[in-house]
Amino acid sequence: MANILDIRRRIRSVVNTRQITKAMKMVSAAKLRRTQDRALAARPYAQMLTNVLKSLVSRVEIYDPKTGEPKHPLLAQREESNILLIVVTGDKGLAGAFNANIIKAASRFLESKAGKNIDIEAVGRKGRDFLRRRYPVAPVQTRSLAEEDEMLEPEGQGEERAGAIQIAGEHVGILGKVEFSQARRLAEAVIARYERQEIDSVYVAFNEFKSVIAQRLVVEQILPIEQIGEAAVRQAEELSEEEKKKAKAAAVSAGVGMRKAEILADEGGQFGTSQVDYIYEQPPEELFRVLLPKYVGIQIFRALMESVAAEHAARMTAMDAATNNATDMIDSLTLAMNRARQAKITKEIIEIVSGAAAM
Amino acid sequence: MAEVFQFEIVTPEKRVVDTAATEAQIPGKNGYLGVLPGHAPLITELAVGEITFRSDSGEQRLAVASGFAEVLPDKVTVLAETAERPEEINVERVRKAKERAEQWLAGAQTEADVERALDALHRAEVRLRVAGKS
Questions:
Q1: Which domain holds residue A68?
Q2: How many folded domains does chain B comprise?
Q3: Which site from A156, A188, B19, B123 is most exposed, i.e. has the minimal number of CB atoms within 10 Å?
Q4: Backbone phi, then psi, for A240, in 5-degree steps?
Q5: Which of B30, B46, B81, B82 should we substitute to test contact with A (largest number of A Cβ atoms within 10 Å)?
Q6: Chain A closest CA to B1's CA: distance in Å?
Q7: What is the pLDDT of residues B35-57, one digit of tens each?
Q8: Cα angle A167, A172, A178; round to 5
Q9: Judgement on whether residues B113 and B52 belong to the same structural domain of the protein
């Protein structure tokens, strides 16, 4: 027979835990809302940039008429022997399977590209820690985005690789407040390496976030650019129905909207698409050359933002589940305690009655 | 009331300006452009510099860097990676950035280094000018 005092102590401890998980859930919900707003605010820029590029494509000779080669290096397809993979995870845990899922997707991608040289840029502490245990660190690393320096130049090249798969850069502690300048710096570093032909393609593995219930784990190809305005998804995995249901329940109880964030999309839709003959201040080719790197930057920015939003959503769901579990546990413990108390009282009565009968 | 056009400045992080304006000056790569309502359609790359525009609430200035602009007769859209109002500029930080840029310039080895250092220096100077602290 369990001791009543012990059970009461356990209940108290579970109640405290529930309070913490509940608070974490609400905090995550608030952060999710803020991140969602920021992701929304980034839409018009991305949309307009894409539109201008699209309209430029129709005006610029992208391919060399003689050789058929693309004129811009970022469009050039090369045989893949050196790959760069950006893995975006979270800095913190307690978000359910969020980090593990991304790592799993990234590992699967690495397996599918086995035999090739792969450099990994790890964004987020959790992914970094895991990958570090598995793969060697490159002799020369890109400087971390967390440092506040304008020049992010991977210094030194042609060094020995630490292994077929190596960690080329670690960026920890930037996810609290993602800024576009960070995405731009990462894009610049990646583009520089791509143009020097050190790498032949660039992928990013992250958790895509359209809304709380519309999420996908994707590996997207960023370079070479295949089709402007369309994500080149190489590997994708949707939420299971059960996960969706849980996420939905968590969102409802935390008061987070679930609508898809697409309303703003056509606001930017007009930009640069007018059927007028623009005066181009610079030759269209030159504009094109300037804008393509920006396009890469905005794609990385989007990946970072959506990953952050997805992390908050995952944490919110996980904490909602934890809160529910704590409630269930309290209920069953309370029941056990009441039973124990009742048993004790019954026993005492029996003792008194049988004592009286013996007199 | 004079004619107006819709004036927007958008950065990846937010829509900074969205208002009706009567005139604007935009730092194009090949020099500043003055835009009035009814301007011919035009697309240009932005230089580092300051945007000035006039609307109902008076004249406003912003420091911009890296982006491009689309001009249509009734609408002007500026896409910039950064666009800061004078009160948003952290003068202390810009001063530091300027000092750093000057050091780079002094220690620059290659032409590319010099170019980049000059770029950084220019950015810092424009910011200081917009903040009114140069």
A1: 14-322
A2: 2
A3: A156
A4: -75, 160
A5: B81
A6: 27
A7: 999 888 888 888 888 899 988 88
A8: 120
A9: no
